[in-house]
Fold these 4 entries.
Entry 1:
Amino acid sequence: MDLSTRIGGLTLKNPIMAASGCFGYGVEYADVVDLSSLGAVVTKGLFLEAREGHPAPRIVETPAGMLNAIGLQGIGARRFVDEKLPELRARKATVIVNVCGTTLDEYVEVSRILSDADGVAAIELNISCPNIKEGGIQFGCSLPGTAAVVSAVRKVTRLPIMPKLTPNVTDVASFARAAEDAGADAVSLVNTFLAMVIDVESRAPKISNVVGGLSGPAIRPIAVRMVHECRQAVKIPIVGMGGIAGARDVLEFMIAGANAVQVGTANFVDPFIWPKLLEGISDYLQRHRIARVADLVGTVEAGHAHERT
Amino acid sequence: MPVDVDAEVMANRALTSDYNVLALAAPQIAAAAAPGQFVMVKPGSGFDPLLRRPFSVFEVLRDPRGMPTGLTILSKRIGPSTALLYDARPGQRVACLGPLGRPFTTVDPPAEAWMVAGGVGLAPFATLAESLRARGVTTTLFYGARRSTELFYLDFFRALNVELVLTTEDGTAGERGRVVAPLDRQLASRSAGSAVMIYACGPEGMLAATARTAMKYSRPCQVSVERIMGCGLGGCYSCVIPIRGDDGGFHHVRSCLAGPVLAADQVRWD
């Protein structure tokens, strides 16, 4: 059975990645997960410099989900290369770095540093974080902004480039198309949905940043729909995410059109989820006599709504 | 290395209409846990509640031969997760991941240990007191609660020959007021030459007051902090605490990895 999948020039051994912002720098999980067993580890977002992020409280639980506004706390690109990448290399992890920027120049500079480093397999461009004031989502909410970041980074790296798209737009498929036209090798979606939770007794927001990004099973059907829309709009690979909590959810995203997936919030609940997801996918492929997981991508039978009785 | 145990509820004892002690059959975690470490607990496998909740390991349960059979957590009902834990029945399963975090650093005689607990912040001190008393350390528990009925496990600490200094906000047991008041008085009357290690766990205001009091008398103090925590393993960056930097600034550390036990004088308390 073949679980491999391709993202641009990169072949992943399986379609399951750990999502950025939900897995630290990967090294935090080296004791509980065989990092080499994952399709890829996507690191926490990296700017040029270190950032402290927002004050606590940074998360609040919601029905079947959670809201976060971490504020992209991080150690910066150079410290990542010096302090984290060697261990990730030693653990034989396939590393995708999540690149952030407050300006176009910063995206370019961070991408350049990480492209020069040994052990980076691809770049995910964070143009969709809802929780910082400058950069990020400013680019991701504008079609020219999205194209500008992709084409600027395209000029300085040979690594596959994968912008991570925000769902906080009217037509996410047009952003996938803008990214493809600008030279992206893939797109990943969705980042979190901008949301808010208020404590009615105190009338205070429950996180310090007032608003934050909603993730978890609550958002999954919306994310699946968006992947489906993007599949019809672009030819490049799609990495789907949003509330995946089991193997069936992975399969749903792939059938909708994702070539690979990322898992975030579910890792908080069950850090031992990874082998369970892989086993579940293998079982399904066996049961349906499908030899290659890649053959499942975009196979939704859109004309045949199925009511299970 | 932490393990995740689908732990059977061995017993669930209600202490009041809000507080309970839940015993979980997680012998591997109990055997490996050091005083001050915590577990991430989730009742039920559904999505509501979704996330685990952090709890200090309260007691390590042992069979007659001394082998660990499980652990308990001390819980206060404040939301949906803790309501499920309050109502859990023996035989039910509760996911329990641990042991996690940096434990307390113990001391040896002639140093004394003064533990300062506020409310449910008593939790890490049962195992710490056992460890300290086994080393022959003279140990005192300063323990504050709202009212006398919320002062728990006093006989447990008495049986270990831990000296008790009790306070209640309503004056129904011990001294009326906050627990930091007797701590301050006893530190003031203590000769500077005798070593005292202060350990504190409780609400943030109490921790800050304890830290300031310890600093006032130049005493070392370890605090066990509590933050809203998403994962317990360093993945989510939600449980951060501001730590003083050398440059006069601060930086955020994850209390699940750098803590929950931190040196009180390193924390920026404002």
Entry 2:
Amino acid sequence: MRGFFRNRYLQNSADDIRHFMRNPGLMAVTAVLLVLILIFIVYPIGSVLIKSFSVSYPTVTLRYETSVAASADVDRLVTHPLLGVLKNLQGLESARATGKSGSFAIHLRFQRDWDDLKGLNDTKRSISAIQGQVDPHVRKFTYRLGKESVNSIASYRDFFSNSYYYRALRNSIVLALVSTALVTFFAFCFAYLGLKGPDFLKGALRVMGLIPLIAPPFIFALALILIGGRMGIFTKLLHLPFNIYGWPGVITAQVITFLPLGYLMIENVLRSLGTNLEDAASDMRASDVDILFKITIPLAAPGILKAGLLVFLMSIADFGNPMLIGGGVSFLATDAYFLWMSENNLEMAAVFCVFLVLPSMIMFMIHEYILKGRVYTTIGGKPQQSEKRRMSPKIFYPMLAIVTPLSIMIVLCFGMIFIGAFTKILMVDNSFTLEHFQSSNGFYSLVTSLKFAFSAALIAPIIGVTLSYILVRKRIPFKRILEFTALLGFAVPGTVMGVGYIIAFNAPPLKLTGTFIIMIINEAFRNLSVSLEAGSSKLHQIDVAIEEAAVDMGAGAFATFSQVVLPLISSALVAGFVYTFMVGMIAVSAVIFLITPGNNLASLYILAVAEEGFLGMACAISIMLIVVVAASLGTLKVISKYTKTEVF
Amino acid sequence: MTRTTKLLGIIFITISVFTWLMSAPVLAGKALKVYTNADVNEMEKWAPEAEKAIDMQIDWSPRMSSNELWSRVQAEAPNFQADMIWGFLNSHALIGTQRGWFIPYKSPVWQDIPANFKDPDGNWYGYNYWFSAVVVNTKLLADKKLPTPKSWMDLADPRYKGEIVMPNPGTSGTAFLSVSAIMQIFGEQKGWEFLEALDKNVAQYTKSGSAPSQMVAQGEFAIGISWDQAIYGRVEKGFPIEGIVPSEGTAFDLESVAILKGCKNIEGAQKLIDWLGSKDGQTFIGQFRSKVTRPGIPGKVSLDPNLIKYNALWAGENQKRIMSEWKKRFQK
């Protein structure tokens, strides 16, 4: 049996390959896309993996020439005395002597985090101590600093043997699990109440559930600091003995930030369930509570799980919230950044990235390959005609009690940002001021963000939609692999792409770090998959017959694509553009590794000033950012509605 | 395709191309790219003034604390992304010179500035110096009935538990200066003992050396370790804070500038160095920093703080080792 399926798969592949080979245009385009994806997605991620398995030692190489003829004499007169005094050097790992016939070298390897300049100076000092003894025989000494990279799992060993490393992994996973549980819980209540509850609540709930979307992801951390930080209004007014930094702050910030994602997905699921089964159960005298727990939830379970997995992914990749309000608690994304920023320890940062990728990959695989298509929808042939039932008070009031505090919190957060932006220093000098809006650098960073997001948004849809056309309509071999790698850029946390780009593009032939271009490319390829999905969904709505008709009338493949298909799916291009633009404005976790003088982004600038305690300025720039994002989101909704394209 | 869609499409494309063109880097003359460890609010005033003096646009790095900056420079070597460094620790300037990362420049303007403030070959120049100090919020201390600390050792007093905010020596030059000063004052072993005791009192480690001043000024903590101007600048603004130089002495750092190898704008870099050493430049900087290096130009602070004989080279050579150890012990 197994052989049967395998042969079929291979046979199909063989057919695909044959068809592919006959079509040079298709081959060219696919080749270009493949190369781009390989370079800008696979190569960086691969480099991270390789880097995590390498360890580098600082080395000092001492070369010398001697006028002594016999090598045995050289050993006795020069090499051994040198080695004798060098092997006592501080921080030395190993010393090795090589060379012959006049030209020799001693290769000194120092401990991993030893300062190589200190090693060099210590070496010079040691040698000058026995200078007199070896001088007559040696013509000259030259020194060279170097780095030796060795393949080893030493970094992993370090990771597991030091608590300040592995606790980042533990904390990140715990955080993700807690956030996921809370977000799905709240999102379900919001969605259920909105869908089945009284009509007057519908609008309010929808707004509450979705409005966090317009705020850059770490804005709520900022707001929470204003509310519950050491100088927060609640902390001060209520004289609370604790503050919100650390776990409470990060969890709360994440729950608010990811609520819209959960809400959208769960509402979608609940809506498509239809009420048939629930009505039937009700007719059979089941109580509302029973219906909720025995029918609605089990039916919606796969969809809820799907939402949960996505929230898990986002939580583990979250950089801004732990950075602002984490209060020093170790998390994978932020620790990886500090490992690179303040210790220049790329190897350990790579290890952290591997541990960031693993849970994400697992979750993503489950999401894409197991849950896809398993979402239960009730598809009836006839339109459903049922009266909207009144929700039982036993469900209504508890849900209301759950939903209200969170809604108040959301409103409070937005309110605090506004207040903070217009107040000199909150709780210290509450006078009204516009000075926070006058930061020239803040404004400049906003302009840079606009340029950045705009450029990335131009590239991503073009590549994404072209790719979607090839994947949906054309026959190419190993489609799955191409699709998978394109989605990889999205599934992998931003930190990994950031570190990967630093490792991959820091040396010729592709030395691109420090340029504006590399930031744009990074952002574009990270968001390919959204344009891909938009294009795919739109293509599925279009009948193949239209393209076949074009071909029948003599249009070539390219003409068909550009004159027939492209206009029809243009809304996908636009949707991809707006989405990538929106995400680009609030990008943080990947680009923080790539910014350089003159290329500061608004989102990162907010983090920087907030960290220095200039909360008012942070709020002001945040408001400007919110305005831009809200405008883009509005545009996206209008396009979605107008052209019926699904982007989410 | 309907007419409306076509029209929309054309408008969209036109706007896109137009914006794209407008956003292309069109510079009237080249920009000078600098890395700096100066505070954001300092650079926002310094850069425009400097731009006027050298008649060139200055692109300055998003704010990096001293060790972050140095880490970045080390990572990029020898292909630096910036033209020069305007403001970094002297320890690092010494190390960079040894590694041959700078382009030497003998500035004529600097001739009459004392030799101990500049590299003999012109690899780096020190244009002002600052020292680390303790900042306290007098109001908070009074409210909590705590005595004012007067020395480093005082900070280890368990009475101050949870009241101290200090920068992280891993990222901040201020903190690293303080830590290496402590090592040099007390010797390494006693130094580590002191740091252990201090750590128990520290509520939070911040990334930058200035943040503690802001936080103590805002009343979030009673005591902070920071640097002189961050403190005195806020005293001037009217915050209820006071700067204290510990009785055992404190270390000072010579804020340095250097031109990085591979600099694409030598002319601009040299002009900036000239300006920073000139009477005008020094007077301007003197409005912001405690002490400038040109004789006769006053800085903001006229008192002579108790400065130890700080060995910057030792600090630079041992930084990695000490930081590793610090992380092992105190990284939460």
Entry 3:
Amino acid sequence: MKISYFPGCTLKTTAKNFEISALAVTKELGIEMVELSRWNCCGTVYSLTSDDLMHQLAPIRDLIRVEEDGFNRVAVLCSMCYNTLKRANLMVQKDSEKLDKINDFMYKEDLKYDGKVEVVHLLTILKDEIGWEEIKKHVKRKLEGLIFAPYYGCLLVRPPEVAIDNVENPYIMDALFEALGARAIDYPYSTECCGSYNTVSNPDIVLDKTYEMVNLAREQGADAIILSCPLCDFNLEARQKNVLQKYPDFHPLPVLYFTQIMAVAFDLPQDTFGFKYNQVDPSYLFVKNKEKV
Amino acid sequence: MRIGVFVCHCGSNIAGVIDVKRVAEEAKKIPGVVYADTYIYMCSEPGQKLVEDTIKKYKLDGVVIANCSPSLHERTFRNAAARAGLNPYRVEIANIREQVSWPHEDEPELATKKAIKVVEATVKRVRKNIALVPPTIPVTKKAMVIGGGIAGIQAALDIADGGYEVYLVERDPSIGGKMILLSETFPTLDCPQCIETPKMTDASQHPKIHLMTYSEVDSVSGYVGNFKVRVRHKASYVDWSKCLGCGDCVTACPVKGIPSEVDRGLSDRKAIYIPFDQAVPLVPVIDADNCIKLKYERKISEGKIKRPPKPVKVCEKCQDACVPKIINFEDVDKIEEVEVGSIIVATGFELMPIENLPEYGAGKIPDVIDGLQFERLLCASGPTAGVPKRPSDGKIPQSVAFVSCAGSRDPAHGVAYCSRVCCMYLGKQALLYKHFVPEGNAFIFYIDIRSNGKGYEEFIQRAKEEEEVVYIRGKVSKIFQRGDKVVLWGADTLTGERVELEVDLVVLATAMVPSAGAKELASKLRIPTDTYGWFQEAHLKLRPLETVTSGVYIAGADQFPKDITDTVSQASGAAGKVLALFSKPELTREPTIATVDTEVCAGCGFCEDACAYEAIKIDPRRKISVVNEALCEGCGACSAVCPSGAMTLKNFAKSQVFDMVEVATEEYE
């Protein structure tokens, strides 16, 4: 399978471990992810102001790039990019007047956007197009004994029209863990907000949330939190050192992208795990695991 | 023609927008109109008198009343005409309120012009109206009640006490419905085992009531006064006529661990079982899907295994234990056809499964149960003999959280309505729980407390003040298991704070939804259901017990969530409707129905396909359509599809429609 791929800014900077592992894993599964020849910021946050079309230019321009490269589907890894691109796309699909306005504004583009690109998250591709049975076939190092907290945050499941799974009780990551030989906890915070950009202006909110969310994951028996969003990762993982300063009783817990545990389970080369970019070193989890195997 | 036009002001409802005087003046100019005037309330007694007197004085042979919708006052003025000696079907309504003054209140000039048009079109229609006589049909003075809950029992008893025979059909092995499974009933705390069992016994012993338990309606044909219902008596494998209800067969049965339907999975039953101690009739049935012997026999009949040459006794322990030897493994479903004149549908409700509520654990947390399960735990004849033990470990919970509106009032779960009884039963359950565990804590999460019944608000106040039940105003966002506790996250919207509560047991007041099979039954009875699947009444305010199918009535919580008081009232009301129907020697029907021009009809059958009421059949001998006057509802679908124009709706003929369209499509000056 060949599909256009939109990385987004974080995957090239703070979330390199996500991209490295994702590209390795998809290659192993026979998915050819072709990075867009040109792309810009996804728009970061989908604007809810109905006449604020200026903020829809960035995502729509990215979708034009997909068509320029000759594709009609684009795979996205970062939850925020996924959410923004998908919602901007839905908006212009539903409202041709707005689409015309945006196209008119970007008259210098060679192509006019027609609303025909499909935005898909990698997890959806894994579930619907590859299938858990196929993924199981690639597992060479079963992650037996490992227990993960699935963390979807808000952007993968809200609002319902872009949700990759059941809004209240998503199961897609649980199924992935099972395919890899691991197990998921019932994690009540799995669709909770990570605090998002409060991490800049009001970091205390994020510290309190992270403290609570990591502690509950540990309490429910999780060895690590697994997610798909670089911003959530920053708040849940990178912020742990600040949490420790605020709450001395805090114990750090590894946080990984779902593609990282897939890379381990597929027994791909060590450098594709991207562990060196993780703020809380997760490698010990898999050392134990290896001994068991 | 001598037509009179009467324009109603309807106070300011019509006259506030439309220049009614001008409408009357213009009406006078229409050919055939000999009288036109206005009156402030035409439906009032002096208004009707005016119509009557004018008919006599001007010798009118056609009347147009320009007022409100015909569904409100058509009958009023037709009766007035009849009193004045005019055939009532020469009277028509020109609706200038719902269709003119109300929707066009901002454009009085245009509204007046439109009203003039509507009046003119109706005058043209009335010109071709003919005098009609309502047809009469005989009536079978027996009734059927479908559903043996408290609604069905009450309706059956009332009709039987009125002297008519009733077939009471119940699909479960016992009558009693949901009510008999409850602990105590709000606000009086009567126990249903005390107040409902006498009615159940009365129903089973009443000489006029034929109890048909473990039976379902297979098909319904016919029409008001003359229904034919095929009832399927499901195979029970026990000869009930000889059964003593001793229960020896149940004791002997080796198949255990089947989740009990009446205890909603909180206890087990056997493959042969009596549903509960007060069951009426108190007889067992065999669950063929779980009985060793019947499963074996089925496999043989399906050819999956071969019967050994020397027959082996697989398991007949129930038969061995039975003293009168009345278990019959060869029992089959039996069909019985009965003729009735009227049908009451009282099939009740079900609760939305917890599986539909992923935010509340989707049914995976053992100590999160629904309201009816907690009723069973509190019920003296329930699985725990009335001691509220939680399902996971059988401990008596020291804290219980009750969650209102679990699914209800939540369009995201497809239930935008309020289930109406939950506020009250949660208050009652919390109160009963506190009686068992006085030192325990009971919390009720609510959005609003709806306690609008006699003695209801006082009851809630008692729960709050005397029983110290803690009410928290806010919705619960998430429920999950932590250790052996259940944790709820929510908000207290009065203090504006987030709430985290750790309790031993959670009771969800899950939304009330129509019972399984309601849709299929509705289509058998040709009655509509609403968006949610509740049976649709003919008019919410004025005909709440009737359906659009004549002779079929609804009672109880199959129309909408209801408490017992409302259910019983409605059941008696529906029974009253049936008794009124039976009080006449024969039925009269509206004569404004379809009629066939036998000279023109070619028997193509388009009308037969178009008829939603199965009122048209092709006569195979004459090869033409025949309209059943008792079934036709006068919708006009047949005349619309008829390619030859043979099919006509009386007093709404094609030529009348064309006359009206001609007026309606004229340009305004």
Entry 4:
Amino acid sequence: MEAKSHGPAALGEDDMEMEFQVAPMVDVLLVLLLFFMATATTEVSMQREDITLPKAGFGQDIQGRDAMLDVNILSITNLIEVLGVPPFEDASQLTPIVRASKENAEKSGAVSAERPYRVFIRADTNTQYERIHEVMKACAEAGVPDVSFAINEDKDQRK
Amino acid sequence: MASGGGEEGEFGLQIAPMLDILFVLLLFFMVSAGANEKEQELGVKVPGTGPGKADGTKMTPIVIRIDADGTVFFNDTPSGAPNDDLLMDLRGMLQRMTGAYSNPEDQDPVIISPSARTRHTRIVSVLDAASYAQVKKLSFRAPPDGTPK
């Protein structure tokens, strides 16, 4: 009796013709599709590789992105980066930028009493408070006292 | 035309290696998706330089001081060593305060007073403890080591 093998060695044998198996391939593709659908989110992370965000367990999901201004404080250099402007050192330069951004948001109707304009500070874990306070003070002088800090969710703390 | 096997002299589509690679890719994306960190926010109100509320005159503010080495003090009472990441004692103290008031507006204001050299991650840990205790009135104090320009 002829023993039939099913491995690659069987390929090419006249009595063991491997046909194109569509069903398993479709199964795999469907699994992949389901996987990417499950992991895809509507909100694109704005994380940067050069800023290591601190972890916290009780933060809130970011909402109302049209009523907030992202301000990055770069690690090592401590430069302030906002709205595509080249990073700068003097925090006082931030005040007119924040004020203008707030006015634009108010004109577009994104700001309300229930949802005030706020600044979203994305700072590295090792950034010193002196620098962060400079940024907060500049924001306050622009009339934006509400500030929030970017964190990475620490799911272990919520357990 | 794609075929699962090779006809004589022809290079056909090899299904088995393709499936192997697909499963490896699937496993890779599953692992990397699990390692993704979600960005969130911790909010705080900064005392504005413009017209502000004249409240809190009857309330005794709670001052949380954070030294440069990360030691946390709750009204001068040590509540977190530098290596204490979770700050459970501080959470308990803040929760006792917030739990005493049914109306969040009646809470004592909490003022965070970090040193100029305090690391941001330590400040976030304190904010996290405040968020856990549902502190509604939170503000920052200028660093005592010298005011910024």
